Amino acid sequence: MARRYEMMCGQTYLWGMSLTMNFKIFLPILIVISTCFLSGCEYSDLQVDEHHIIKAEYAEGFRWVKLNNVSWLECLNPESNEVLSRVVRDSSDLSLLPEEMLTKFDFIVLCKGERLATLSTTHVALIEKSVGLEHWAGGAFISYLQSESALEKIKNGTALDLGGNPEINREMCVLSKPSALLIYPFGDPLNGDGEVFGIPVIPITEYLEPSPLGRAEWMRVIGWLVGEEEKSDLAFKEIAEKYNRLRKEVHRNNSNVPIVFTGSVKEGKWNAPGGGSLVARFIEDAGGKYLFNGGRENISMELESVISAASDADIWGMVVYAPEGYSKSKLVMEDPRHSYLIPKSGKVFYCNTATTDYFGSMIVQPEVVLADLISLIRPDLAGDTLFLGPKTHEEKTFKWLPE
Questions:
Q1: pLDDT single digits (tens) 326-340
Q2: What pLDDT does 264 receive?
Q3: Taking CA atoms, which of 220, 251, 309, 330 is between 20 and 30 Å from 259?
Q4: Who's near 64: CB < 8 A, 6+ residues apart?
Q5: How far is CA 119 from the centre of its chain?
Q6: 217 and 284 co-located in one domain
Q7: Residue 68 resides in a domain
Q8: pTM, whole model, 2 decimals?
Q9: Long-range contacts for 138-145 (Cβ within 8 Å, ≥24 apart)?
Q10: Residue 8 lies inside a defined structural domain of this protein
Q11: Largest pairwise CA distance in the chain
Q12: Same domain, yes or no, for 258 and 233?
């Protein structure tokens, strides 16, 4: 049966992190959600086939389906193709769909309005980059937010602080009057609730995308949700063009390919992203060869095995949370065995999430992250190759780790 969520007012990893902060907003813990799969057998009796499906160009976690002049958004788990939600923008759309479809599937109908509330700070970055913060109603976990523009909106009351530590403030969520609340479906503090006091809840799974452009393309979903498709599509198109230009330029000059590894020690084991991960894609697109194999999931190894495997590596990359700053000396102080991992070249690059908006910029500015990585991994290609436009970014996402 189709569900309609309306406002009560009636109008209608990782690079290998050494972190001390709470990252519960990023950790995927599987919860039970009522879902179904988009497969031939499910839609075959409803006259829906591949011709009705509009796939994303890079992302695996969303698509649109168009039938009888009605378009709806489907948010997926990109690892399993599981449909997490089906969303239409207006209740009138439902009257145009076959009755058997409404009986078989649940549809979420957006509330009136053009503003979205968020649980994850990464979704704030997607909104800001794609359609602007005038479409942001408020968000949770504000203490993790680094966007000065977003923080100013919280300060002046044009966007509301929805709490999040330990629970989302549902009353404030209602007061923010969003058309929907965007959540991360795995590790969801709402425990799978499909609505918050009548506000529809939409799962956004950008963090499961294995490619930089796949994650950034979720800004197109944001644009669709607030009726600004052209604006968000253009924003993403510009990002993709810059990213692909850099990547192609690097791979036209592939004579010098350094070996790069990432990771850190956790509970006595070395943990690092697998060879099919977002991190591996960034490194390879920047002109490096990622040391580890495997799929998208993190890998775990004995530190001694890593020391042996990384003996011929050229560069070590990492992400840390270090409010007091970070250096090679601090790295070795944390674990003396780290000294055996520092490459013979001495090259270790890092991103300090205490001072850099890594979880925002990595998603919405992958071309900037790629340019930074190219400058470190392939400095021989510096110059015009890294030119991204008249406005340059002030702070690099990644830089060399000082002594």
A1: 999 999 998 888 999
A2: 85
A3: 330
A4: 53, 54, 71, 72, 73, 74, 224
A5: 13
A6: no
A7: yes
A8: 0.85
A9: 138/162, 138/172, 138/173, 138/176, 138/178, 140/164, 140/168, 140/169, 141/25, 141/165, 144/21, 144/25, 144/359, 145/121
A10: no
A11: 67
A12: no
